[in-house]
Design brief:
Blueprint lengths: L5 H12 L8 H7 L7 H7 L12 E2 L9 H14 L16 H15 L11 E4 L2 H12 L5 E6 L5 H6 L5 E6 L1 E3 L4 E3 L2 H13 L4 E7 L11 H14 L2 E5 L17 H11 L12 E6 L12 E5 L2 H10 L7 H11 L2 H28 L4 E2 L6 E5 L1 H8 L6 H13 L3 E2 L13 E5 L5 H15 L2
Parallel strand pairs: 1-13, 3-4, 3-7, 7-8, 8-9
Antiparallel strand pairs: 2-10, 5-6, 9-10, 11-12, 12-14
Helix pairs in contact: 5-12, 6-11, 13-16
C-alpha cells in the first residue's frame, strides 16, 4: 500500500476546505418566485379540513374543479377501458402534437360542440399538448420575444401571468374592464381597449397579442358576437394576434340569456361565407385555445388544444411538442369518448343542468349572508364582493388593495378559508374574490361563507 505523506494529507484537507458549492442559474431564482396563491397549498396541506377528525381545519373553495358530473365521467372511462383493450401501439411514441386518431376526434368535437359550425374543421389545424398551460405558454413564446406583451381584459384568470411569464419572460398588460354598478357587470369597452394599446405603445411597449377569456374567468360572463367580431377586426387592423381562450365553452348555464359564440365559428363563417358583417382577413392571426379540464371535469388528464390556421405557429408547436406530449393511453381512451356523440351530448346537457341548479343554490347561500356577486352565465365560480365585510373587519370607511390583502391573509390564517382575492386577478377595484361552487359540496360552500362572515364580524 502506498503511504500518504503528511504534506499530501494537509493539501487534500485544504482543497476540501476551499470547495465551494456550485450556484444555480440566475433564471432559477425567477422560476422559484411564485404568486402568493401558489403557496396556499402548503397551508392547506398542513391543516386540512376533515368533518370528523379536523373540523376546524383549512377549507378551500378556490380551485376551479367540477365534481358535479365526475360520477358520469368515471363510469364512462370504466366502460371504455372494459370495451377497448390496450393495443401494443398504445405503448409506443406517436405524433408529439397528438396522434392522428386523436386529432380527428378533437377536430370532430370542436366542430360539433364548441364551434358549432357546418364548415370543415381539419385535424391538421389542431395541436394537443399536456394541458392548456402548455398550450398558452408555448403560444405566447411563439408570438412574443422577451419583455413583449399580451393584452388581457381584467379581472383576468389569476394564473395567466405565471403561465405567460414564468419561463419565457413574456409580459401581461391588463386592460381594465369598466365596472358598471348599475348592471353589476364588468364590460369590455372599445375605447378603453384602444387607449390601453395606445398608451402602451407610447411607453415603448411592444404589444403582440390580445387574449380574450370567453366565457370569462373569473366573472362567468359571456361576450356577445358583436364584441368578438370587433376584437378580431381590431387586432387585425392593429397588427396583433387574437387569442380566444374557450376552456369553459360547454359550461354554460341553461338559464343564460346570452349564447356562447366561439371565435372559431366566426372565423370559419367568414372564411367560407364571406360574411358582410366581417372584414375580409385570412384569419391566420386568430388562435383558439381549448381544454378538456373544465367542460369534461378532466383536470388531471392534462389535455390542452390549439386550433389555428397560422402555418408558422403550427410548425413551431410541432417543433416543441416532444416536451409536452400527452400519454398515448390517454389519447386512445379520449378518442373513443370524443367520437361518441351520444355520450358527449348527454354529458354536456347533464353538466349544464347540474351547473345551473348548483349555481342557483350557491347564489341563495350568498343572498342569505348578504354577499353581492356578479350574475354569471357560465363557468364554475362566482365573482363575489367582500367590500362591506372588509370595511367592517378593518373598521374603515374606504378600502384599498392593501386592505384587501390584509383581509385575505386573515381569512386564510384565522378563518381558515381559501378564496383567491381580486388582486390575484389584476382587478383594480378592491374587495372582489372568486368562489368556486363546484369543487366541494354545497354544505361545504355554506360552511366556508359562514366562517368568513362570522370571522369578519368578530
Amino acid at each position: 500500500m502506498t503511504k500518504v505523506r503528511a504534506d499530501q494529507e494537509d493539501c487534500t484537507a485544504t482543497s476540501h476546505e476551499q470547495f465551494h458549492k456550485p450556484e444555480l442559474s440566475k433564471r432559477s431564482h425567477h422560476f422559484r418566485v411564485n404568486p402568493a396563491f401558489f403557496g396556499v397549498k402548503s397551508v392547506i396541506m398542513a391543516d386540512p379540513y376533515d368533518a370528523v377528525s379536523n373540523p376546524n381545519g383549512v377549507l378551500s373553495i378556490g380551485v376551479a374543479h367540477n365534481i358535479l358530473v365526475s360520477d358520469i365521467m368515471c363510469e364512462k372511462i370504466d366502460q371504455i377501458n372494459k370495451k377497448h383493450k390496450t393495443d401494443p401501439v398504445d405503448l409506443d411514441y406517436t405524433d408529439y402534437t397528438g396522434s392522428p386518431q386523436f386529432k380527428v376526434a378533437l377536430a370532430h368535437m370542436l366542430k360539433k360542440h364548441v364551434f358549432r359550425t357546418k364548415h370543415q374543421v381539419e385535424p391538421k389545424h389542431v395541436v394537443a399538448f399536456n394541458g392548456a398551460v402548455s398550450i398558452i405558454e408555448n403560444v405566447m413564446a411563439a408570438l412574443c420575444d422577451d419583455n413583449e406583451y399580451v393584452m388581457i381584459p381584467a379581472p383576468m384568470y389569476h394564473a395567466f401571468e405565471n403561465d405567460i411569464n414564468k419561463r419565457f419572460n413574456c409580459r401581461v398588460l391588463p386592460m381594465h374592464m369598466a365596472y358598471d354598478p348599475e348592471i353589476n357587470e364588468f364590460v369590455i369597452d372599445k375605447s378603453i381597449a384602444q387607449r390601453t394599446l395606445n398608451q402602451a405603445r407610447e411607453k415603448g411597449l411592444n404589444v403582440r397579442a390580445f387574449l380574450l377569456c370567453q366565457p370569462n374567468n373569473p366573472t362567468g360572463d359571456i361576450y356577445h358576437r358583436e364584441i368578438i367580431e370587433w376584437l378580431i377586426d381590431w387586432t387585425a387592423k392593429e397588427g396583433i394576434h387574437f387569442i380566444s381562450d374557450e376552456v369553459y365553452a360547454l359550461s354554460v348555464f341553461t338559464s343564460s340569456p346570452t349564447p356562447f359564440i366561439s371565435a372559431g365559428e366566426i372565423m370559419l363563417e367568414a372564411l367560407n361565407e364571406k360574411s358582410p358583417s366581417l372584414r375580409h382577413h385570412d384569419y391566420s392571426h386568430v388562435h383558439i385555445i381549448y381544454s378538456l379540464s373544465k367542460d369534461f371535469t378532466l383536470n388531471g388528464f392534462r389535455v390542452g388544444v390549439l386550433y389555428t390556421h397560422h402555418i408558422d405557429l403550427l410548425e413551431t408547436m410541432r417543433a416543441v411538442g416532444m416536451y409536452h406530449e400527452i400519454s398515448t393511453q390517454s389519447q386512445t381512451l379520449l378518442t373513443h369518448m370524443l367520437l361518441d356523440d351520444e355520450f358527449v351530448e348527454y354529458f354536456t346537457k347533464t353538466n349544464q343542468e347540474r351547473l345551473t341548479n348548483t349555481y342557483v343554490q350557491a347564489a341563495a347561500i350568498l343572498d342569505k349572508y348578504n354577499i353581492p356577486f356578479v350574475k354569471p352565465n357560465a363557468g364554475v365560480f362566482l365573482w363575489i364582493n367582500f367590500e362591506h365585510l372588509i370595511r367592517k373587519k378593518l373598521k374603515k370607511q374606504e378600502i384599498d388593495m392593501v386592505d384587501e390583502k390584509l383581509f385575505w391573509d386573515g381569512m386564510l390564517l384565522q378563518a381558515k378559508v381559501y378564496l383567491p382575492a381580486g388582486h390575484f386577478f389584476h382587478c383594480d377595484i378592491p374587495g372582489w374574490f372568486r368562489l368556486c361552487f363546484t369543487c366541494k359540496s354545497l354544505s361545504i360552500v355554506e360552511t366556508c361563507v359562514k366562517r368568513i362572515v362570522d370571522w369578519a364580524n368578530l
